[in-house]
Write a structure and sequence with these properties.
Organism: Streptomyces fuscichromogenes
GO molecular function: catalytic activity
InterPro entries: Histidine_triad_HIT (IPR001310), HIT-like (IPR011146), HIT-like_sf (IPR036265)
Mean pLDDT: 95
Helix content: 25-40%
Number of strands: 5
Radius of gyration: 13 Å
Order of helices and strands: HEEEHHEE
Strand order of the largest sheet: 1-2-3-5-4
Protein name: Histidine triad nucleotide-binding protein
Shape: globular
Oligomer: single chain
CATH superfamily: HIT-like
CATH class: Alpha Beta
Pfam families: HIT
CATH topology: HIT family, subunit A
């Protein structure tokens, strides 16, 4: 069921504190932590504490929390003193999504080319 924690979800386990992560920010609705395979000097994932499979499902189900993710992405960028950064939501395996829990990648600290990978 959307919004409910999933026993087999890595990010739900991080939210619950069952899997360690390098948490850099936490709010009532979000958790931000360093990516274990960083693609840039700053590579932080911002996730909702509620479980939705992707950004579109989160936006439809709980738009206020989707907005919280974007606010937290800005806060991460501010804390890391990034003048430029990218926020990426991968949706679907063809786009590179490997964990089926909404998450935004905040990437910066180096030049980023367009189009991305």
């Amino acid at each position: 069921m959307p919004g409910e924690p999933q026993d087999d979800c890595l990010f739900c386990k991080i939210v619950a504190g069952h899997v360690p992560a390098t948490i850099v920010r936490e709010t009532d609705t979000t958790v931000a932590f360093r990516d274990i395979n960083p693609q840039a000097p700053t590579h932080v994932l911002v996730i909702p504490k509620v479980h939705y499979r992707n950004a579109a499902e989160l936006a439809a189900g709980e738009p206020a929390i989707a907005a919280d993710i974007l606010r937290e992405a800005q806060a991460v960028a501010d804390e890391d003193k990034l003048e430029s950064y990218r926020v990426v939501f991968n949706t679907g395996s063809g786009a590179g999504q490997t964990v089926w829990h909404t998450h935004a990648h905040v990437i910066g600290g180096r030049g980023l080319q367009w189009p991305p990978g």
